[in-house]
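Appendix B. Chain record.
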Amino acid sequence: MSAMNRLKALFLDAGNTVLAMDYGLLSRWASLAGLLIEPEIFARAEPMARPTLNHYLQGGASTESGSTLSVYAQAILSAARDLEDDRITDEEVRTALPTLLEILDDPSNWDNLWTHVPEGVPAALARAKEAKLRLVIVSNSDGGIDRKLARARIDHYFDSIVDSGTVGVEKPDPRIFEIALERAGCDADGALHCGDLEAIDVQGARAAGLRAVLLDPFGDWMDPSLGFDVPNCETVRDVPQLVDRILSANG
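Structure tokens predicted for this chain:
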């Protein structure tokens, strides 16, 4: 962790940060759409898809729109195709996409997809709480992220949950981070935000005066061969690594 003032609050995105997809479920849904893709392939393909999704979101699209879901699903399937050494064709991806989108567009299916807690996250959150860090979720969602966190049994770690569907403003608008700061009871220089999308999490947090860290578990964001600009921000592998860095810096 770069030199910083002592942190009082850690803001965290929800999806792909403290909650992950159930890739086994996604694999089953893909099979209904005609694609045989193992969960392990999806687990690697999803992080690979984030820079592509980020590039689309830089144009100002909402993360909660149907068009964004289409771009996201397409990017994941394309990454899975690449990982499968082209065993899956472009035509098969195009044919399967509408069926998969129909499944994902069902709110109950979307809720059921986000049920996995990455390894080490509960223990990391517990260490942060023990160190008196204020933990706040700052998520673009549909008003139901509290329900997802409760079902995953990690809601009790958070001092507040700021859901765009509830507060009426979404990342990267700095106002959502200002709401989080007010709830955390600290100034921007005492907080850090971590999430999985540079255009949404990093740019939004910085616009509100917060420091920001980008989750990059496999170094995908730093690969210039992807054709996108390498983001100018600190990255971290996962939430446990981030918490350990913060606690070490805080002393």
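Further analysis of this model is presented in Appendix C.
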